[in-house]
Amino acid sequence: MVEQYASEVNAPTSTVTIPDGEVDSPQAWRVAIASSAVVAVSFGTVYTFGAFFDAMAEEFDSGLGATSIVFGITAFLFFGTGAASGFMADRFGARPLVWVGGALFAGGLFLTSQVDALWHGYITYGIGAGLGGGLFVAPVFAIVAGWFDRYRGIAQGIVATGSGIGTLVLLPLAERLIDENGWRSTYVVLAVVSAVTFAVGGMFIARPPIEQVEVPMDHLKQTIRTPAFRRFGICGALQSGSMLSAFAFIVPFARDQGVSSSTAALLVGMVGASSIVGRLALTGFAGRVGPVRMLQFAFLVQPVAFVIWLFAGGSVMALAVFVVVLGVAYGGYVALVPLVAAHLFGVRGLGVIMGWGFLAGGVGSLIVPPLVGFLGDAVDGPALPILAITMVSAMGAALLLGLQQEPISSV
Predict the structure, then answer these.
(1) Contact 266, 172 (CB under 8 A)
(2) Per-domain residue ranges of the chain
(3) CA atoms within 13 A on the CB side of 209
(4) Cα separation of 29 and 13, whole Å?
(5) 16-17 and 211-212 strand pairing
(6) H helices of 113-131, where?
């Protein structure tokens, strides 16, 4: 259903010529699986930061706000670099970006394990994991679409599912390694895992067998200036800021309320697991009710999840309900945004347009988590910080209700 819908969206404006015999081939599936592995390790590693929060804050005698700046800078570069990496992928291909960005990513993790001051982590983790990951995340999502025609939706689902699997596996693993060996040794382990994954994965990632047609810059500028794109970007910034705040603070807030470290880490892993369900379920209905309406639904589910979090306290059962609902909303958001972008703005220059959308999400991720962290330092207990996250999310959901349903005829 997803692939049928994608093939129907603005077909006359397609920018590619697809040759017979190469798409949907065994090599195409190898590209999809390798891309999924790259996505799993990059997203999963970045989302493990919540497990490192308490250990790093204690060693450097820093509060939630100062420590969360590390995560904010990383998330901003991780998502925001997509505005430029799309152009680089068109010129150089995704493979060198995976290798260069992967080297920065793994090197940044290793250097973070050696820092003597928290602000050093702003540079090593931010530029390493953030900028390094940002070089290849958007391109690997984009190239997979070029390798498939009939099975494009399934292939894109495989890649998108990588982030959920990475979170499910790596965060509990990181929590256990931190308990046994300390946070510095854990970053070394993650650096090795990242280096191997990106080196091997890059060998299987190749340019898609399609003839690219240059998209005029006037078209891209016209698209970005539309009211619909501005609303789309602002809502994405609010959604990403609140979502990344949850990834950053679920573990420390749960610990503050008496939940064990291992259980808190498992909760974040459950977000990744339930996000897979969200990707499959919500995209499955996109062809019937429309991608915009399904994205609006995903946005509305997110503040509902945060309300559950607000009243969950230290109840593991209530927290489990919260993370499952949040994961469904998150998974739907990740899977539906490309469909909505293609539906509203067409497929011409979609990679670059998505890159600008990633940048909007990165801005929200840079601003909201540190503000929530400083609020957590100023008050007792997590109630007010969670309420702030809920309000940011609710604003994004409310604004998205005004997004038009029909494609933009002027682009």
Answers:
(1) yes
(2) 16-400
(3) 14
(4) 26
(5) antiparallel
(6) 118-125
Which spans in 314-410 are helix H?
A: 316-345, 350-378, 383-400
Sequence-ordered list of residues with C-beta below 8 angstroms from that of 5, at least 6 positions apart, any chain? 153, 286, 287, 291, 339
The identity of residue 218, as a single letter, is: D
Query: 6 near 342, Cβ under 8 Å?
Result: yes
| Cα-to-chain-centroid distance, residue 28 | 23
Phi, psi of 212, rounded to the nearest 5 degrees: -80, 140
Integer angstrom CA distances of residue 259 from 8, 48, 264, 265, 274: 48, 17, 6, 10, 21
Please report where in the chains the tokens 């993650």 appear, as a residue. Answer: 190
* Tens-digit pLDDT string for the chain (411 aa): 333 333 333 333 344 444 445 777 888 899 999 999 999 999 989 888 877 877 888 888 888 788 888 888 888 898 888 778 877 877 788 899 999 999 999 999 999 999 998 888 889 998 888 999 999 988 887 788 778 777 776 777 788 788 878 888 888 888 889 988 999 999 999 999 999 999 999 999 988 876 555 665 676 778 888 899 999 989 989 999 999 899 888 888 988 888 887 888 788 888 888 888 877 777 777 778 888 898 999 999 999 999 999 999 889 999 999 999 999 998 888 778 877 887 888 766 666 777 787 888 889 988 999 999 999 889 988 999 999 999 999 999 999 999 988 887 655
- Burial class (CB within 10 angstroms; exposed 0-12, middle 13-18, buried 19+) of 20: exposed
- Class of the CATH-defined domain 16-400: mainly alpha
The residue with tokens 């250097």 is 111
**What Cα–Cα distance (Å) separates residue 355 from each residue in 86, 134, 135, 144?**
7, 10, 11, 16
Q: How far apart are the C-alpha atoms of 2 and 378, rounded to whole Å? A: 46
What distance in Å separates the CA atoms of residue 5 and residue 339, rounded to the nearest whole number? 9
CB proximity list for 235: less than 8 A, separation 6 or greater: 299, 396, 397, 399, 400, 403
Backbone φ and ψ of 211, nearest 5°? -90, 110
